[in-house]
Design goal:
This protein is of the alpha/beta class. It is 42% helix and 20% strand. Strand 7 (149-154) and strand 8 form a beta hairpin. Bound molecules: 5'-O-[(R)-(carboxyoxy)(hydroxy)phosphoryl]adenosine (KG4) and zinc ion.
Length: 343
Protein backbone atom coordinates (compact mmCIF):
# COMPACT_ATOMS: atom_id res chain seq x y z
CA UNK A 1 0.00 0.00 0.00
CA UNK A 2 1.52 3.36 -1.12
CA UNK A 3 1.67 6.06 1.59
CA UNK A 4 2.49 6.49 5.31
CA UNK A 5 5.68 8.47 4.91
CA UNK A 6 8.09 9.41 7.67
CA UNK A 7 9.23 13.02 7.30
CA UNK A 8 12.97 13.43 7.76
CA UNK A 9 14.97 16.44 8.89
CA UNK A 10 17.60 16.08 6.15
CA UNK A 11 15.93 14.19 3.31
CA UNK A 12 17.72 12.82 0.25
CA UNK A 13 15.70 14.00 -2.74
CA UNK A 14 15.97 13.01 -6.38
CA UNK A 15 14.93 15.71 -8.87
CA UNK A 16 13.84 14.89 -12.43
CA UNK A 17 13.34 17.45 -15.20
CA UNK A 18 12.05 16.75 -18.73
CA UNK A 19 9.91 19.77 -19.66
CA UNK A 20 11.75 20.73 -22.86
CA UNK A 21 14.95 19.47 -24.49
CA UNK A 22 16.99 18.60 -21.39
CA UNK A 23 16.65 15.27 -19.62
CA UNK A 24 18.06 15.97 -16.18
CA UNK A 25 18.37 14.24 -12.83
CA UNK A 26 19.97 15.45 -9.61
CA UNK A 27 20.24 14.46 -5.96
CA UNK A 28 20.33 16.74 -2.92
CA UNK A 29 20.71 15.89 0.76
CA UNK A 30 19.11 18.66 2.80
CA UNK A 31 20.17 21.76 0.89
CA UNK A 32 23.45 20.22 -0.32
CA UNK A 33 23.65 19.25 -3.96
CA UNK A 34 25.25 15.81 -4.38
CA UNK A 35 24.97 15.35 -8.15
CA UNK A 36 23.50 16.93 -11.26
CA UNK A 37 23.26 15.21 -14.65
CA UNK A 38 21.97 16.93 -17.81
CA UNK A 39 21.49 15.16 -21.12
CA UNK A 40 20.54 17.67 -23.81
CA UNK A 41 18.94 17.02 -27.18
CA UNK A 42 19.88 20.57 -28.31
CA UNK A 43 22.31 19.29 -30.96
CA UNK A 44 19.60 17.06 -32.46
CA UNK A 45 17.06 19.92 -32.24
CA UNK A 46 19.50 22.37 -33.89
CA UNK A 47 19.09 20.47 -37.18
CA UNK A 48 15.46 21.68 -37.22
CA UNK A 49 16.13 25.22 -35.96
CA UNK A 50 14.16 24.73 -32.73
CA UNK A 51 12.66 22.16 -30.39
CA UNK A 52 10.61 19.45 -32.14
CA UNK A 53 8.34 18.09 -29.36
CA UNK A 54 8.29 14.55 -30.80
CA UNK A 55 12.09 14.39 -30.81
CA UNK A 56 12.27 15.80 -27.29
CA UNK A 57 9.91 13.06 -26.01
CA UNK A 58 11.87 10.30 -27.73
CA UNK A 59 15.19 11.54 -26.39
CA UNK A 60 13.74 11.75 -22.85
CA UNK A 61 12.46 8.18 -23.17
CA UNK A 62 15.94 6.99 -24.17
CA UNK A 63 17.75 9.08 -21.58
CA UNK A 64 15.67 9.25 -18.40
CA UNK A 65 16.67 5.99 -16.70
CA UNK A 66 20.36 6.52 -17.50
CA UNK A 67 20.26 10.11 -16.20
CA UNK A 68 18.61 9.00 -12.94
CA UNK A 69 20.98 6.07 -12.36
CA UNK A 70 23.99 8.28 -13.08
CA UNK A 71 22.76 11.00 -10.71
CA UNK A 72 22.23 8.40 -7.95
CA UNK A 73 25.67 6.85 -8.56
CA UNK A 74 27.47 10.20 -8.70
CA UNK A 75 25.76 11.19 -5.44
CA UNK A 76 27.38 8.14 -3.84
CA UNK A 77 24.04 6.64 -2.78
CA UNK A 78 21.70 3.87 -3.92
CA UNK A 79 18.04 4.16 -4.90
CA UNK A 80 17.08 2.84 -1.45
CA UNK A 81 18.62 5.93 0.18
CA UNK A 82 16.11 8.24 -1.53
CA UNK A 83 13.47 9.88 0.69
CA UNK A 84 11.41 11.54 -2.07
CA UNK A 85 11.21 12.02 -5.84
CA UNK A 86 10.57 15.56 -7.09
CA UNK A 87 9.61 15.95 -10.73
CA UNK A 88 8.56 18.75 -13.06
CA UNK A 89 4.86 18.26 -13.87
CA UNK A 90 4.53 21.54 -15.84
CA UNK A 91 4.79 23.88 -17.58
CA UNK A 92 6.35 22.56 -20.75
CA UNK A 93 5.86 20.22 -23.68
CA UNK A 94 3.20 17.72 -22.68
CA UNK A 95 4.79 14.63 -24.23
CA UNK A 96 8.17 15.57 -22.80
CA UNK A 97 6.77 16.18 -19.30
CA UNK A 98 4.93 12.85 -19.31
CA UNK A 99 8.17 10.92 -19.74
CA UNK A 100 9.76 12.35 -16.57
CA UNK A 101 6.49 12.36 -14.62
CA UNK A 102 5.63 8.74 -15.42
CA UNK A 103 9.15 7.62 -14.57
CA UNK A 104 9.03 9.53 -11.26
CA UNK A 105 5.65 8.06 -10.33
CA UNK A 106 6.86 4.51 -10.90
CA UNK A 107 10.03 5.12 -8.91
CA UNK A 108 8.19 6.77 -5.99
CA UNK A 109 5.65 3.93 -5.94
CA UNK A 110 8.24 1.17 -6.09
CA UNK A 111 10.35 2.73 -3.31
CA UNK A 112 7.27 3.79 -1.31
CA UNK A 113 8.49 7.37 -0.96
CA UNK A 114 6.63 10.65 -1.57
CA UNK A 115 6.19 12.06 -5.05
CA UNK A 116 6.59 15.83 -5.24
CA UNK A 117 5.14 17.61 -8.26
CA UNK A 118 7.23 20.69 -9.06
CA UNK A 119 6.19 23.74 -11.05
CA UNK A 120 9.13 24.36 -13.41
CA UNK A 121 9.03 28.10 -12.77
CA UNK A 122 9.27 27.61 -9.01
CA UNK A 123 12.24 25.39 -9.82
CA UNK A 124 13.96 28.30 -11.60
CA UNK A 125 13.37 30.44 -8.48
CA UNK A 126 14.73 27.73 -6.19
CA UNK A 127 18.03 27.61 -8.12
CA UNK A 128 19.10 30.55 -5.92
CA UNK A 129 19.09 28.27 -2.84
CA UNK A 130 21.71 26.08 -4.54
CA UNK A 131 23.90 29.15 -4.87
CA UNK A 132 23.48 30.34 -1.27
CA UNK A 133 22.31 27.87 1.35
CA UNK A 134 21.68 30.77 3.75
CA UNK A 135 19.26 32.57 1.42
CA UNK A 136 15.98 33.34 3.17
CA UNK A 137 12.87 35.17 1.93
CA UNK A 138 11.97 37.94 1.43
CA UNK A 139 13.82 38.71 -1.79
CA UNK A 140 13.11 39.97 -5.30
CA UNK A 141 13.74 37.68 -8.29
CA UNK A 142 14.24 38.42 -11.94
CA UNK A 143 12.85 35.40 -13.75
CA UNK A 144 13.66 35.30 -17.47
CA UNK A 145 13.35 32.09 -19.45
CA UNK A 146 12.07 30.89 -22.81
CA UNK A 147 8.47 30.91 -21.56
CA UNK A 148 8.36 33.55 -18.81
CA UNK A 149 9.66 36.99 -17.98
CA UNK A 150 8.68 38.45 -14.64
CA UNK A 151 9.85 40.19 -11.52
CA UNK A 152 8.67 38.41 -8.40
CA UNK A 153 8.60 39.19 -4.71
CA UNK A 154 9.21 35.97 -2.78
CA UNK A 155 7.63 36.55 0.62
CA UNK A 156 8.09 33.12 2.18
CA UNK A 157 9.55 29.81 0.95
CA UNK A 158 6.24 28.92 -0.71
CA UNK A 159 4.63 32.28 -1.55
CA UNK A 160 5.50 34.85 -4.17
CA UNK A 161 3.81 37.90 -5.70
CA UNK A 162 4.21 38.85 -9.37
CA UNK A 163 5.30 42.50 -9.45
CA UNK A 164 5.51 42.77 -13.22
CA UNK A 165 5.65 40.51 -16.25
CA UNK A 166 5.71 40.46 -20.03
CA UNK A 167 2.47 41.19 -21.86
CA UNK A 168 3.54 39.22 -24.95
CA UNK A 169 6.71 37.21 -25.72
CA UNK A 170 9.21 36.08 -23.11
CA UNK A 171 12.76 37.48 -23.17
CA UNK A 172 14.26 34.09 -24.11
CA UNK A 173 11.78 33.71 -26.95
CA UNK A 174 12.87 37.13 -28.27
CA UNK A 175 16.53 36.07 -28.13
CA UNK A 176 15.64 32.93 -30.10
CA UNK A 177 13.70 34.96 -32.71
CA UNK A 178 16.46 37.54 -33.12
CA UNK A 179 18.95 34.69 -33.53
CA UNK A 180 16.83 33.38 -36.40
CA UNK A 181 16.61 36.84 -38.01
CA UNK A 182 20.42 37.09 -37.82
CA UNK A 183 20.84 33.56 -39.22
CA UNK A 184 22.30 32.16 -35.99
CA UNK A 185 21.73 28.51 -35.11
CA UNK A 186 19.60 27.13 -32.25
CA UNK A 187 19.88 27.66 -29.29
CA UNK A 188 19.53 31.35 -30.01
CA UNK A 189 20.26 33.04 -26.68
CA UNK A 190 23.91 32.04 -26.20
CA UNK A 191 24.64 32.69 -29.90
CA UNK A 192 23.16 36.21 -29.82
CA UNK A 193 25.22 36.87 -26.68
CA UNK A 194 28.43 35.64 -28.34
CA UNK A 195 27.83 37.79 -31.42
CA UNK A 196 26.91 40.83 -29.32
CA UNK A 197 30.28 40.69 -27.57
CA UNK A 198 31.99 42.00 -30.72
CA UNK A 199 29.31 44.61 -31.55
CA UNK A 200 28.45 48.17 -30.58
CA UNK A 201 25.03 48.90 -29.09
CA UNK A 202 24.52 51.96 -31.28
CA UNK A 203 21.34 51.09 -33.22
CA UNK A 204 18.22 52.73 -31.82
CA UNK A 205 15.66 50.09 -30.89
CA UNK A 206 12.62 50.28 -28.57
CA UNK A 207 13.14 49.26 -24.94
CA UNK A 208 11.29 46.10 -23.89
CA UNK A 209 9.12 48.10 -21.52
CA UNK A 210 5.49 49.21 -21.72
CA UNK A 211 5.37 52.77 -20.45
CA UNK A 212 2.38 54.43 -18.78
CA UNK A 213 0.37 51.20 -18.57
CA UNK A 214 -0.40 51.73 -14.88
CA UNK A 215 1.38 48.49 -13.96
CA UNK A 216 4.88 47.25 -14.60
CA UNK A 217 4.85 45.45 -17.93
CA UNK A 218 7.50 44.29 -20.36
CA UNK A 219 6.99 43.73 -24.07
CA UNK A 220 9.22 41.89 -26.49
CA UNK A 221 7.14 41.66 -29.65
CA UNK A 222 7.72 45.31 -30.67
CA UNK A 223 11.45 44.97 -30.09
CA UNK A 224 11.59 41.79 -32.14
CA UNK A 225 9.67 43.47 -34.99
CA UNK A 226 11.99 46.49 -34.82
CA UNK A 227 15.02 44.20 -35.23
CA UNK A 228 13.34 42.46 -38.17
CA UNK A 229 12.43 45.80 -39.82
CA UNK A 230 15.92 47.19 -39.31
CA UNK A 231 17.51 44.16 -41.02
CA UNK A 232 14.98 44.01 -43.88
CA UNK A 233 14.98 47.77 -44.56
CA UNK A 234 18.77 47.91 -44.57
CA UNK A 235 18.92 44.95 -46.97
CA UNK A 236 16.29 46.57 -49.26
CA UNK A 237 18.22 49.82 -49.36
CA UNK A 238 21.39 47.89 -50.11
CA UNK A 239 22.92 49.24 -46.89
CA UNK A 240 25.39 46.99 -45.13
CA UNK A 241 25.03 46.54 -41.38
CA UNK A 242 27.05 44.70 -38.83
CA UNK A 243 24.96 41.83 -37.33
CA UNK A 244 27.08 42.09 -34.17
CA UNK A 245 25.86 45.68 -33.69
CA UNK A 246 22.25 44.49 -34.09
CA UNK A 247 22.83 41.74 -31.51
CA UNK A 248 24.48 44.17 -29.07
CA UNK A 249 21.75 46.80 -29.50
CA UNK A 250 19.00 44.20 -29.09
CA UNK A 251 20.63 42.83 -25.96
CA UNK A 252 20.70 46.26 -24.33
CA UNK A 253 17.07 47.04 -25.23
CA UNK A 254 15.94 43.59 -24.08
CA UNK A 255 17.81 43.45 -20.80
CA UNK A 256 18.29 46.99 -19.43
CA UNK A 257 14.61 47.40 -18.44
CA UNK A 258 14.75 44.08 -16.58
CA UNK A 259 17.85 45.11 -14.65
CA UNK A 260 16.58 48.58 -13.77
CA UNK A 261 13.10 47.45 -12.75
CA UNK A 262 14.37 44.50 -10.69
CA UNK A 263 16.68 46.73 -8.69
CA UNK A 264 13.97 49.41 -8.45
CA UNK A 265 11.49 46.88 -7.02
CA UNK A 266 13.95 45.67 -4.37
CA UNK A 267 14.70 49.25 -3.30
CA UNK A 268 11.03 50.23 -3.26
CA UNK A 269 10.05 47.18 -1.18
CA UNK A 270 12.99 47.60 1.19
CA UNK A 271 14.14 44.04 0.41
CA UNK A 272 17.92 43.68 0.58
CA UNK A 273 18.43 40.61 -1.62
CA UNK A 274 17.96 40.08 -5.36
CA UNK A 275 18.10 36.70 -7.13
CA UNK A 276 17.78 35.70 -10.77
CA UNK A 277 16.72 32.55 -12.58
CA UNK A 278 15.82 31.08 -15.98
CA UNK A 279 17.90 30.57 -19.11
CA UNK A 280 18.28 34.30 -19.86
CA UNK A 281 19.90 34.75 -16.43
CA UNK A 282 22.86 32.87 -17.94
CA UNK A 283 23.45 35.90 -20.19
CA UNK A 284 26.79 37.56 -19.42
CA UNK A 285 25.60 41.10 -20.15
CA UNK A 286 22.62 40.63 -17.82
CA UNK A 287 24.80 39.13 -15.09
CA UNK A 288 27.31 41.97 -15.25
CA UNK A 289 24.68 44.69 -15.33
CA UNK A 290 22.69 43.13 -12.48
CA UNK A 291 25.77 42.88 -10.29
CA UNK A 292 26.79 46.48 -11.10
CA UNK A 293 23.35 47.89 -10.34
CA UNK A 294 22.86 45.76 -7.21
CA UNK A 295 26.25 46.88 -5.92
CA UNK A 296 25.32 50.54 -6.53
CA UNK A 297 22.04 50.10 -4.64
CA UNK A 298 23.77 48.16 -1.85
CA UNK A 299 21.74 45.01 -2.58
CA UNK A 300 23.00 41.45 -2.17
CA UNK A 301 22.79 39.58 -5.48
CA UNK A 302 22.41 35.81 -5.53
CA UNK A 303 23.17 34.71 -9.06
CA UNK A 304 23.00 30.94 -9.63
CA UNK A 305 25.78 29.40 -11.73
CA UNK A 306 24.87 29.49 -15.42
CA UNK A 307 24.29 25.72 -15.52
CA UNK A 308 21.59 26.17 -12.84
CA UNK A 309 19.93 29.06 -14.73
CA UNK A 310 19.18 27.02 -17.85
CA UNK A 311 17.04 23.90 -17.40
CA UNK A 312 18.43 21.41 -14.89
CA UNK A 313 17.18 19.01 -12.22
CA UNK A 314 19.18 20.43 -9.30
CA UNK A 315 16.70 23.31 -9.14
CA UNK A 316 13.80 20.81 -9.23
CA UNK A 317 15.32 18.93 -6.30
CA UNK A 318 15.84 22.27 -4.47
CA UNK A 319 12.17 23.22 -4.95
CA UNK A 320 11.31 19.61 -4.04
CA UNK A 321 12.96 20.16 -0.66
CA UNK A 322 10.81 23.24 -0.02
CA UNK A 323 7.65 21.32 -0.91
CA UNK A 324 8.81 18.30 1.16
CA UNK A 325 9.22 20.51 4.21
CA UNK A 326 5.75 21.99 3.56
CA UNK A 327 4.33 18.43 3.30
CA UNK A 328 3.12 19.03 -0.27
CA UNK A 329 3.05 15.54 -1.72
CA UNK A 330 1.34 14.59 -4.99
CA UNK A 331 -1.07 11.75 -5.64
CA UNK A 332 0.06 9.13 -8.15
CA UNK A 333 -2.71 10.10 -10.56
CA UNK A 334 -1.37 13.63 -11.04
CA UNK A 335 -1.21 14.61 -14.70
CA UNK A 336 1.25 16.79 -16.59
CA UNK A 337 0.24 20.40 -17.35
CA UNK A 338 1.43 22.18 -20.49
CA UNK A 339 0.70 25.55 -18.90
CA UNK A 340 0.56 26.73 -15.32
CA UNK A 341 -0.41 30.31 -14.50
CA UNK A 342 2.45 32.19 -12.90
CA UNK A 343 0.12 32.69 -9.97
O1 LIG B 1 15.07 28.35 -18.58
P1 LIG B 1 15.32 27.80 -19.93
O2 LIG B 1 16.52 26.91 -20.10
O3 LIG B 1 14.08 27.04 -20.46
C1 LIG B 1 12.78 27.50 -20.25
O4 LIG B 1 12.24 27.24 -19.16
O5 LIG B 1 12.29 28.20 -21.16
O6 LIG B 1 15.44 29.06 -20.90
C2 LIG B 1 15.68 28.89 -22.24
C3 LIG B 1 15.81 30.25 -22.87
C4 LIG B 1 15.99 30.17 -24.37
O7 LIG B 1 15.10 31.07 -24.97
C5 LIG B 1 17.43 30.56 -24.57
O8 LIG B 1 17.68 31.19 -25.81
C6 LIG B 1 17.66 31.50 -23.42
O9 LIG B 1 16.96 30.92 -22.34
N1 LIG B 1 19.09 31.61 -23.08
C7 LIG B 1 19.78 32.75 -23.18
C8 LIG B 1 21.13 32.44 -22.85
N2 LIG B 1 21.18 31.11 -22.54
C9 LIG B 1 19.92 30.62 -22.69
N3 LIG B 1 19.41 34.00 -23.56
C10 LIG B 1 20.35 34.95 -23.57
N4 LIG B 1 21.65 34.72 -23.29
C11 LIG B 1 22.08 33.49 -22.91
N5 LIG B 1 23.37 33.29 -22.61
ZN1 LIG C 1 13.26 26.50 -17.80
Amino acid sequence: MYGNFTIKETPVILGIESSCDETAAAVIRGGKLLSSVIISSAEEQAKYGGVVPEIASRVHTDAVDGAVLRAVKEAGITLKDLDAVAVTYGAGLLGALLVGLSFAKSLAYSLNIPLIAVNHIRGHLAAAYLCDGNLKPPYVTLLASGGHTAILHTKSYTEFEVLGSTCDDAAGEAFDKVARILGLPYPGGPNVQRLAESGKAEITLPQALVRNSGKMQFSYSGLKTAVMNFCHNSAQRGEKFNPADVAASFQVSALEPLVKKTVGCAVRLGVNTVTAGGGVAANEYLRTRLSDECAKADLKLILPEKKYCTDNAAMIAAEGLIQYRAGNFAALDINAAAQIALQ
